[in-house]
Amino acid sequence: MFDFLFRKKKYEPIPIFEVLGTDMHCHLVPKVDDGSKCIEESVECMKALASVGYKKMILTPHFQTPRFENDEDDIVRRYEEMKRQAADMGVEIDICGIGGEYRIDSGFAKRLENPRFLQIGGKYVLVEFSLHQQMMGCDEMIFDMQMKGYEVILAHPERYPYLNVGGSRMEQLKNQGVFFQVNVLSLGGFYGEEAKRRAFEMVEGGLVEFLGTDTHNSMYAQALIDLTHNRKVEKLLMNHEFLNKTL
Ligand SMILES: [Fe+2]
For the chain, first and last CA: distance in Å? Predict the structure, then answer.
């Protein structure tokens, strides 16, 4: 009799992410990290991304020691294969690039030496820190990347509790020329209230150049669809400029 009270409303997608155009952070190359587990799941997520307004997407599998010891050549092969399959399965979003989400860890310096080091948009490198603490020597690694001509994007700074908004460390990273990429799902509270508050503060404070979905699987895709009904997020997208469209 009262089961309607417990049934979760299933939202229809609204294309609010059209203003961004390109998603530049997601884990939809199947079976290479903690993202999508099969091509069917990747395709479902890609269709969800298209339904909320994205026209293009760049994939960014994890590179992390020792958890995801991916090899660039292997990732590119799998990406090309996935692209062919996705086209056959009716995906209309433009899958336009393969990068990586490189963890700055003990294996990073060696990865940086690889001439196949994967970039986004021809010049950006997406990096992440550990969620618990930064690695010692992290600034030197960022500097080394910049010396090699890369622009550095830090993935989801709102998710690092040790990085205070407006604090000296954050200021130092910005002064060092690091671009910030906030996860759109953080804005809806997907990673908790603290990350949500910090995500809003960073975007409203003009500290954020890119937004990414960080889609891993269908649960993220549904959360993204639900987020399109969040008026506060829609307003934030309308009132701020991001560099996603330049990719
Ligand atoms: Fe990610």
Answer: 51
